[in-house]
Design goal:
With 390 residues, this protein is an alpha/beta fold. It has 13 helices and 13 strands. β9, α7 and β10 form a beta-alpha-beta unit.
Length: 390
């Protein structure tokens, strides 16, 4: 069943290097490859987006996501002109333009939730909302959830408790397992020293991604006399200066800066270990649950890298400890360094093969889009039956 799909993700830049950019581009491309006509509203980035998709430059005003609802009239006009069967909206606290467009076009409405709809304990936004008495921000978010024919999310824990479970598709995000593979060709942006083992961190340099934690673990290794583990940190962000400062004086630590996503398969394939040292205590919304579907872990696994990550409940479900990687207790001092030492003595190639097999089976964008395909066909058919009863 071929559908016309309008995907509103106007707070994301495509092409781009951040996880949200990769997610939007991969879902759009994957749905188009399944035979759907896909129109995507994004902020255009440098370079060319994937082919086979209709890209529309509709950025949030002044590139400020909290003003994106001001684009609702333009999105509604486009929806009426296209006549989509399905409208997908990438959820944002101040969004809702996709909901309004779906209603105007008579389309099924899909809410793609990557962040909490409910407030976490101590949320400043919740405090402000209560001061406004009628709690308009909570009511508007809940209106989006109530209007959705389908909610796509990695974790239902971030949705209101009253959300009907039959309208929720809990599914992981993914990796492009055709591009991210152990034999991906290309030259990595670092030089491997003879006898070294390369442990790579890839992602945004934000406090809760734990880049500083990784560097501190490397410092502990050096203090123990372990010098052959080469740490490579790929990415950029506000925590990068602090991370560079933490690495001052350390040998065998390389910062590449942000890389185009097309360069990432070769960079990961040239490494030996993928490190994801999440520090959830430094991000308030994670008090609700570790709701992320971590692209870096899926791309590590697809590249044949065993993963080192904290032993959080969701990560225990995503990475088989001792089989596809090693998980450490984040509250234990030196636990990340201990896990890296243990990985030096493991059969990393065997663990990487297990990780790759799991990624292909469970964490590919192909699998993700196949699940979306089936769910979209169902809700589009349901809406057609309600509109045109026999």
């Amino acid at each position: 069943m071929s559908l016309r799909i309008l995907y509103s993700a106007i707070d994301q830049q495509v092409p781009g290097t951040l996880g949200g950019s990769v997610h939007v581009a991969s879902v759009a491309e994957g749905l188009a490859q399944r035979g759907h006509e896909v129109h995507v509203l994004t902020s255009p980035g440098p370079g060319a987006p994937p082919t086979g998709v209709h890209w529309h430059a509709v950025a949030a005003p002044w590139r400020r996501p909290h003003l994106r609802l001001l684009r609702a009239p333009a999105v509604r006009r486009l929806a009426r002109a296209l006549g989509p069967d399905v409208v997908i909206e990438r959820y944002h606290n101040f969004g809702g333009e996709g909901m309004l467009a779906a209603r105007a076009a008579g389309a099924a409405y899909v809410l793609e939730v990557n962040a909490p709809v409910i407030d976490y304990p101590g949320s400043p936004k919740a405090t402000l909302d209560r001061l406004l008495l009628a709690q308009p921000m909570r009511r508007w978010r809940e209106r989006q959830v109530a209007a959705a024919d389908l909610i796509v999310t990695p974790s239902a824990a971030v949705l209101p408790a009253w959300t009907p479970p039959e309208r929720v598709l809990e599914i992981e995000w993914g990796a492009d397992t055709r591009r991210f593979r152990p034999d991906a060709a290309g030259t990595p942006p670092w030089t491997r020293e003879p006898g070294s083992v390369v442990a790579v961190f890839a992602g945004a340099f934000r406090p809760w991604h734990g880049a500083v934690t990784f560097v501190e673990a490397v410092r502990l290794l050096r203090a123990r006399g372990i010098s052959h583990l080469h740490a490579v940190l790929i990415g950029d962000g506000p925590e990068r200066p602090a991370t560079v400062d933490a690495a001052r004086g350390l040998s065998g630590v390389t910062f590449t800066g942000a890389l185009p996503h097309d360069a990432m398969p070769a960079a990961l394939a040239a490494a030996d270990i993928g490190v994801a040292p999440f520090d959830i205590a430094r991000h308030g919304p994670l008090r609700l649950a570790f709701y992320w579907s971590p692209l870096k872990i899926f791309e590590y696994m697809a590249s044949g890298l065993p993963v080192v990550a904290p032993a959080l409940p969701r990560l225990r479900a995503l990475v088989a400890d001792g089989v596809e990687g090693l998980l450490y207790e984040p509250a234990t001092p030196g636990a990340l360094a201990d896990a890296l030492v243990a990985m030096l003595d493991r059969d990393r190639a065997a663990m990487g093969r297990q990780a790759r097999a799991r990624a292909v089976r469970d964490y590919s964008w192909e699998a993700h889009c196949a699940a979306l395909d089936a769910a979209f066909a169902r809700i589009a058919a349901d809406r057609t039956r309600r509109r045109d009863p026999q």
